[in-house]
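lol ok so funny story. i was supposed to be doing the assay writeup but got distracted and ended up predicting the structure for this chain instead. priorities right. anyway since i did it might as well share w the group, maybe its usefull for someone
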Amino acid sequence: MRALRTYLVYALLPAELVLAVCLVAGVRIPPAVLTVAEAAFTLLLLANGLAFLRLRRRGLTTREALHVLVPEPALRLIAHELRLMASLGRWVARRPDRGGPDTVAAFPHARDQAALMYGFAFVCVVESVGMSYLLAAWPVVHAVVLVLDVYTVLFVLGLHAASATRPHLLTGDTLRVRQAGHVDVRIPLERIVAVRYESLFTHEKKDGELNLAVGSQTSLTLELGAPVDAPRLLGSPRPVRVVRLHADDARAMHRALREALALTQARTAPSPVPDPPVSA
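and the output, tada:
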């Protein structure tokens, strides 16, 4: 399995990418090279399919089998792209992801970045029109660049849609902090030792801190008694003890968090020791 994954990542896929770039650029490639590349890619797909079926027969779930066959960074990138496209559908249907029945409150946080993201999308559309005009004499290059430009527009809109449809969620014992399609951190309320309302517009990168700025602004700061893991996009661990985030109604979120922390502290406080009985 490991040899198959190494061959896929470090040998065949880069070679296929080089061949695709050469074809788009108009480089003449010998037919024998193309035949060998297509045969190798077909054999790899067949080998992966057989390996997937073998893992399924051993009792692994589909997710577990994919984790064995596909490197973790690649899976996370694919999941991120799918999450953005799904968020576009939720955004159009106006059906935000508000968690399950245990959700106490949801706090949207995308309002202050809307104008910036729409501006980016508009610039991408203008660039797409300009490139389409400039590359009209090269049909193959024009088609490839058009696909990339359309995907770029969808990607930018997907980033905003993911933030708009994935608000921060508060349950009875957990704060779920989210941003776009790549951040989803669950913070147990018992680990939060302080929550402050403070507007910050500059954030220095420091170890142990997670800054989820929206429009370059954060409005709440959480200090944790014990670190939580906020993995990076490709899955590398990142323990953090300070989390800064933003919400459209930051004061309401601040009040809700303080009330939830008070309830958590009341539940976890030790029961008072009863006085010894008074002898007669």
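Strands lie at 103-107, 168-171, 174-179, 183-188, 192-200, 209-211, 218-229, 239-245. The chain has a mean pLDDT of 84.
back to the writeup now i swear
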